[in-house]
Amino acid sequence: MKTVQKTSLKGLTLSELEKFVLELGWEKFRAKQIFKWLYNKQVDSFSKMSDLPKHYRDELQEIAEIDELKLLSFERSNCDGTIKFLFELKDGEKIESVLIPDESRLTLCISTQVGCPIDCKFCATGAMGFRRNLTAGEIVDQLIQTQKHTDRRITNIVFMGMGEPLLNLKNLLKAIDIITSDDGIRIGARKITVSTVGIPDKIIELANAGKKVKIALSLHTLDENLRSKLIPIASKYPISSLIDALKYYYNKIGLRVTYEYIVFDGLNDRDEDIEKLVELAKIIPCKINLLKFHPVDFIRKEPYLKPSTRLEEFAQKLREHNLTVFVRSNAGEDIKAACGQLAILNQ
């Protein structure tokens, strides 16, 4: 007997669900009912969709499914309460997500790819290589599944987990639609940050999508040669082209840009680096996030990369030029959940 290929509904936007129900010969408004059950009430069974007629629920059971990530393990930091989740996907691939508590917010760091093709030398994920893009459903379900493990509502989303979000832009945009929808998960666009190593045409495409999410550039240096060494793909995109794309994004969306800057000992923590950042900050309204380098020697060896001893001094000198500067926390470092430490070690 031939097995019917069921349609996975998680990850479908409202317009896609409307097309789905119309093809079944159902009323169009049924799509919004299903959308609410999937993303707002977050049910795991069609039988729980009580405002659908029973024969519709029975039909969905036959032709569709609600896929869920399988939680394999989670680990909680003894230092700051950060939780790292390990999920298995339907095809056996694995990803990690990180829940970061703060007094005023609860932030989820979401992955968009299995592995990553960029191979940043300071990042553990890149050492895995690239496996595949996540579906919109797999992106959204990280939020749905992690929410089950906290009594607090998740308030903020950062697409800073495994992978380069802009290389999975189609599914990223679908996920943002679902997460921000009033009938969906209902997290405001301004509570969402998309982090990228900088792919100019994709930054422009994100701007044109009009989602009004924040954007963060993984910058780390304004020296072209050093940046290409740290981020190999940077050799394709001069920093000037990134700045032009970010100008476009700011003019289109109206939100200031964030520059992410890991401070490395002797590489990018000199006074001349401060001067270059000060000049950069004059071009587009921005804030600068300084990060400690979190060693990734459990998966890759880069002996020239060491944490700077003058991180706080570097931050203070930037602030003296009236720049908005934050020194990011080391949340989750003790469980290898801090920035740059996500990796599946037993593929």
Automatic annotation (TrEMBL):
SUPFAM superfamilies tied to this protein: Radical SAM enzymes
Bound cofactor: record note: Binds 1 [4Fe-4S] cluster. The cluster is coordinated with 3 cysteines and an exchangeable S-adenosyl-L-methionine.
PROSITE patterns: RADICAL_SAM
Single GO MF annotation: tRNA binding
Catalytic residues, chain numbering: 96 (proton acceptor), 339 (s-methylcysteine intermediate)
Residues the record lists as binding [4Fe-4S] cluster: 116, 120, 123
GO biological process: rRNA base methylation; tRNA methylation
Location of the protein in the cell: Cytoplasm
Top-level taxonomic group: Bacteria
Keywords in alphabetical order: 4Fe-4S, Cytoplasm, Disulfide bond, Iron, Iron-sulfur, Metal-binding, Methyltransferase, rRNA processing, S-adenosyl-L-methionine, Transferase, tRNA processing
Catalytic reaction annotation: adenosine(37) in tRNA + 2 reduced [2Fe-2S]-[ferredoxin] + 2 S-adenosyl-L-methionine = 2-methyladenosine(37) in tRNA + 5'-deoxyadenosine + L-methionine + 2 oxidized [2Fe-2S]-[ferredoxin] + S-adenosyl-L-homocysteine; adenosine(2503) in 23S rRNA + 2 reduced [2Fe-2S]-[ferredoxin] + 2 S-adenosyl-L-methionine = 2-methyladenosine(2503) in 23S rRNA + 5'-deoxyadenosine + L-methionine + 2 oxidized [2Fe-2S]-[ferredoxin] + S-adenosyl-L-homocysteine
Keyword NAD: no
The keyword Cytoplasm is annotated on this UniProt entry: yes
EC number(s) reported in the record: 2.1.1.192
Principal location class: cytoplasm
Cofactor(s) the protein requires to work: [4Fe-4S] cluster
Gene Ontology cellular component terms for the protein in this record: cytoplasm
Pfam assignment, any one: Radical_SAM
Binding-site residues for S-adenosyl-L-methionine, renumbered to this chain: 163-164, 195, 218-220, 294
Domain Radical SAM core: 102-334
InterPro entries tied to this protein: Aldolase_TIM, Elp3/MiaA/NifB-like_rSAM, Methyltransferase_A, RlmN_N, RNA_MTrfase_RlmN, rRNA_lsu_MTrfase_RlmN/Cfr, rSAM, rSAM_sf
Record function comment: Specifically methylates position 2 of adenine 2503 in 23S rRNA and position 2 of adenine 37 in tRNAs.
Family: Belongs to the radical SAM superfamily. RlmN family.
Miscellaneous: Reaction proceeds by a ping-pong mechanism involving intermediate methylation of a conserved cysteine residue.
Entry protein name: Probable dual-specificity RNA methyltransferase RlmN
Organism: Candidatus Kryptonium thompsonii
